[in-house]
Design goal:
Layout: H1 2-18, H2 25-32, E1 54-56, H3 58-70, H4 77-84, H5 90-94, H6 111-123, E2 127-129, E3 137-139, H7 141-147, E4 154-156, H8 177-194, H9 198-201, H10 204-213, H11 218-222, H12 229-248
Antiparallel strand pairs: 1-4, 2-3
The structure holds zinc ion.
EC number: 5.6.2.4
Catalytic activity: Couples ATP hydrolysis with the unwinding of duplex DNA by translocating in the 3'-5' direction
Domain HRDC: 173-249
Amino acid sequence: DETERSIAGQKLNQIAAFASVNACRRRQILAYFGERLEAANCGACDVCAGETEQIDATTDARILMSAVARTGQRFGAMHVVEVVTGANTQKIRRFRHDRLKTYGAGAERDKQYWRRIVDDLLGQECMVRTEGEYPVLKLTPRGKDVLYGREEFHVLRQPSKRRRRARPADAVIEYDHALFEELRAVRRQLAADRNVPPFVVFSDRTLHEMAAHFPTTPDKMRNITGVGDKKLQQYAGDFLPVVDAYVRD
Ligand SMILES: [Zn+2]
């Protein structure tokens, strides 16, 4: 019947989203079968092992979740995406959502891009989709942490068919690959110990910079992109000795 077909359709969409969502693969597959993996880091899949390339999408996540919040957490993904992209629909006019601050805030990206952000926010448990005939998006505590600037949000770099010129922020930097591998091993261990995904410890960008600038003191490490006071305090003791030993060799 209609309900079963719509559930089947949702499940298919979920499967399609698996590969692109930046969350533990095992956790996603279990969630698909209605089960829950308590650990946030299974330690074995490519995402948990830190083998994927991460892109900071915190700003876009905030734009989308801000639209969810400002529309009262009472609308589905399609409508929220139309608000963010500044679409001119009857529904938007009826609810006066074209007067919201986030209306059209993401107009420079297409709807497909924002649907992916929605999938990632769901997969990373920043939002939930309610059950029933008219599913709506709601924010979770983690979603609010990202929205209010307490947490970052990363997505996986998607394989692109056409090579685009890298923007300066994404520009590839020259770095020492052997040191990078050592730093990555430290990150993998810390992430497993703390039961968090590796990018929560440090992004690839941060490790690349460390493997390029060889920081051996807290001051030098503080100058690396992505190293704030809190992370310096948390991780300097784990990473600095590795760099120091590497430089001495
Ligand atoms: Zn995993």
